[in-house]
Amino acid sequence: MNIKELLSVKVTQSLRDAGAAFDSKALVCQASKVQFGDYQVNGVMVAAKKLGIAPQKLAKKVLQHLNLIGIASKVEIAGPGFINIFLDPIWLAKQIEISLVDDHLGITAVKPQTVVVDYSAPNVAKEMHVGHLRSTIIGDASVRTLQFLGHKVIRANHIGDWGTQFGMIIAYLKKHQNKKIDTMQISDLEDLYRKAKQCYDQDAYFAEQARSYVVKLQSGVKYYKKIWRKLVDITMSQNQENYRRLNVTLTKKDIMGESLYNNMLPDIVADLKAKGLAVESEGAIVVFLEEYKNKAGKPMGIIIQKKDGGYLYTTNDIACAKYRYETLGADRVLYYIDSRQNQHLQQAWAIVRKAGYVPDSVSLEHHMFGMMLDKNGKPFKTRSGSNIKLSDLLNEAIKRAGQLLMEKNLNFSSEELLKVVEVIGIGAVKYADLSKNRTTDYIFDWDSMLSFEGNTAPYIQYAYARISSILKRRDIDEKYLVGDIILTENCEKILATRLIQFEETIIEVACYGIAHIMCNYLYNLASIFSKFYEVCPILTAKNNKQRISRLKLVSLTAKTLKTGLDILGIQTVDRM
Ligand code: ARG
After folding, report:
1. CA dihedral sign of residues 291, 295, 297, 303
2. 284-311: average pLDDT
3. Counting runs of H as helices and runs of E as strands, what totals does the chain give?
């Protein structure tokens, strides 16, 4: 049940019935203080101002039209014209029952859309580093959220699998016949790439060879394609291992790299020329955009084809957006790419819109994110200043989680221990990232992310494990929890309300791709549960009726925490 939506619709209608302008909005939100009830209406003041009448007077009229019988137990006017809504415990109890018996927690399907999500996007012949971590895990949380709501999601792993670097690597391999590509690891490829680049920069003959191989590759000559394919396969097989460890849903089937658009590029350039959008300038093909100014204050020129005939990253993203709309049938395209690429994307899309490749009804959204910083606020790097490999970071997470659990001295079998260590270590890293507002940089700090206190994965995972043990102790099967939910104590009502707010939370996350809203919700729910558990005895409740009712609440709490974490791509264990 989306309470916020339900109340918004009803109050907005009453506002209009009370004489407010047709475009007036109720502005319903969760109450900021307990004394304001559960929800508050903030829109009356604005509407009254437009009408030129006292807000209190309009609020009274709104209440005459507002029928919340069976939903709210009290509705009152407060302050200069706010309306406070107190939910009816009987109605809440009913919503809890509905959520409890449904795998989807009672969430009704939304109008399904086709959403393409561009995320992860590592580069071939290079190891994944921490820079790809954010895109990978934030993007995957978004994918899981949209899928949960019933959307058709197409994962697009836009890997960097095209460009001059392949010519260099092939030239290097040819020069050193002894190099056997078949047995190579990704770390060998990185080394190979470095050496190839050196030759390219120092040896003019080598550079010329490399360029000719790029042309051969681009025109599809078999031998070159074969080597290229091998390079891609080696890279992506090893990246797949990172995805598995990270519990990320990407598979080989989701690879839609830059190379996919290569054949579209000549036609796009020709079409942009024909439409008068692209012109020749100093030998290159350029689109001048009025909305971007260069240093001289003139429209900025975006090169889409170089003098030597080569295409650019922007040309590729123009084709890619077109493909996602035309071929994949996207209603929405979400790009999880760091904020430094924002201008690049905006320019590519400005051209896409002018050319009419993607209609305005289809949104192209850059869900950008900031950088990972170290404790000193500097980019997170190794001591020698190079990028931290993702696999090393994950190993460290496992090591630290292992130490943490050793201290706790729980009697796990070794198999169980391995599982728990992985769930806690990986969960902590993912949660630390997801719980920050993605648009800003954040400080990566091992100690705080692995803490059992505060807004961390272990805190929420622990709350879940605690409930599991309560339910297990009683050998409680949801099916045998027969009896009504009775919400009498304050902490019962607060827990019940928060549980039902899962739906409005997930809708917000899906809309803006902001996973931290889900994290805040789960953290808050776990804290509310903790308080509830302190003051409301469960197994020693007053009577059986109350015990059953509380067990049901607790059972839905466990289910909600698990579902919420699952949407974030974070696992749970029954004991920790
Ligand atoms: N491979 C690029 C990088 O590592 C990211 C690609 C993002 N997607 C896109 N459609 N441009 O920076």
Report:
1. negative
2. 93
3. 20, 13
Residue ranges lining ligand 1, Cβ < 6 Å: 118, 121, 123, 158, 160, 317, 320, 335, 337
Distance spanning both ends of the chain, measured CA to CA = 32
Cα dist. 83→15, 35, 71, 77, 168 in Å? Answer: 12, 12, 15, 5, 68
> What CA–CA distance (Å, rounded) separates 159 from 162?
9
122 alpha carbon to ligand 1 midpoint, in Å? Answer: 7
Read off the amino acid at residue 90: I
Percent of the chain beyond pLDDT 90? 79
For ligand 1, the distance from its centroid to the CA atom of residue 234, given in whole angstroms, is 19
For 178, other C-beta atoms within 10 Å of its C-beta total 5
Give the distance from CA 394 to its chain's centroid. 20
Sorting pLDDT into bands at 50, 70 and 90, what band is 183?
A: confident
Tell me if 527 sits within 8 A of 469, measured CB to CB.
no
CA of residue 420 relative to chain centroid, distance:
24
* C-alpha dist (Å) from residue 332 to 115, 257, 328, 337, 496: 5, 19, 11, 16, 34
Token output for 118: 């561009």
Provide the token pair at 273. Answer: 């020329």
Q: Read off the pTM.
A: 0.94
So what's the pLDDT on residue 476? 61
CA dist 570 to 51, 88, 136, Å? Answer: 50, 34, 13
Take residue 242 and report the two structure tokens written for it. 């990172």
In the numeric block, which tokens belong to residue 53?
């009448």
Give the closest residue to 332 by CA, choosing from 160, 159, 513, 121: 513
* Superfamily classification of domain 403-567: Isoleucyl-tRNA Synthetase; Domain 1 (1.10.730.10)
Look at residue 261 and tell me whether its pLDDT is greater than 60: yes
Rounded distance between C-alpha atoms, residue 141 and residue 120, angstroms: 12
Q: How many residues does the chain have?
A: 576
Return all residues near 143 (Cβ < 8 A) that are at least 6 apart: 117, 119, 153, 155, 249
Q: What is the mean pLDDT of residues 405-427?
A: 90
55 CA from centroid of ligand 1 (Å):
51
pLDDT digits (tens, 9 = 90+) for 112-151: 999 999 999 999 998 898 889 999 999 999 999 999 999 9
DSSP label at residue 569: T
- The arithmetic mean of pLDDT across residues 164-190, rounded, is 84
The Å distance, Cα 484 to ligand 1 centre, comes to 53
pLDDT tens per residue, range 336-358: 999 999 999 999 999 999 999 99
The answer, yes or no, to whether residue 424 has pLDDT greater than 60, is yes
Q: Is the fold of 3-87 the same as that of 403-567? A: no
Helix intervals (H) in 409-445: 414-434
Could you give the CA distance from residue 4 to residue 23 in angstroms, rounded to a whole number? Answer: 18
Q: Which residues does residue 41 pair with via DSSP β-bridges, in sequence order?
A: 28, 83
Q: Ligand 1, atom 11: nearest CA belongs to which residue? A: 317
Please state the domain extents for the chain.
Answer: 3-87, 164-254, 403-567
Q: What is the pLDDT of residues 438-495, one digit of tens each?
A: 999 989 889 899 999 999 999 999 999 999 988 887 656 666 677 899 999 999 999 9
CATH class (in words) of the domain with range 3-87? alpha beta
State the closest ligand 1 atom to the C-alpha of 338, by its place in the atom list counted from 1: 12
pLDDT (0 to 100) of residue 300: 94
